[in-house]
Write a structure and sequence with these properties.
The chain has three helices and five strands, in the order E-H-H-E-E-E-E-H. The protein has helices at 28-43, 48-53, 127-133; strands spanning 7-12, 57-67, 76-86, 90-98, 104-115.
């Protein structure tokens, strides 16, 4: 998967997402990105709950985020998500929040580690997930 074929997840900015000035509160961008990554997995028929039952889980272990322009109340936006690096036990995703004019409002590089949910120690990403996510 590349930026041109990125997974897209639409969002609407609600009152609860904003501060007193009607601008998205900075921590809420993390929620938008988390939901988009979850939906990316679902779009490839990868159930995170089923993985958890198989003692496979993903956790965010690193994030770089640039807040470029504030998203505003009632805006309809899109989170674009694609993997940029898939390793033995981690995936780095690029995620951007864009408006209808194509402007990037926020950009993040998010590294998720594949871990055993009880020990929280790194484990190998199942091969079927590597192949599905990279499509």
């Amino acid at each position: 998967m590349t930026e041109e074929s990125a997974f897209e997840w639409p969002i609407t900015i609600y009152y609860e997402d904003t501060d007193v000035g009607g601008i998205v509160y900075h921590a809420n961008y993390l929620k938008f990105f988390e939901r988009a990554r979850t939906e990316l997995f679902r779009s490839h028929d990868v159930s995170l709950q089923a993985l958890f039952a198989q003692n496979v889980s993903f956790v965010v272990c690193h994030m770089d985020i640039d807040f470029l322009k504030g998203a505003k109340l009632d805006e309809r936006l899109v989170v674009r998500t694609w993997p940029v690096k898939i390793r033995h036990a981690s995936i780095v995703f690029c995620q951007v929040l864009v408006n209808n004019a194509g402007q990037t409002l926020c950009k993040a590089m998010v590294q998720v580690a594949c871990v055993h949910p009880e020990t929280m120690k790194p484990i190998q990403i199942p091969e079927n997930i590597k192949s599905e996510i990279s499509k």
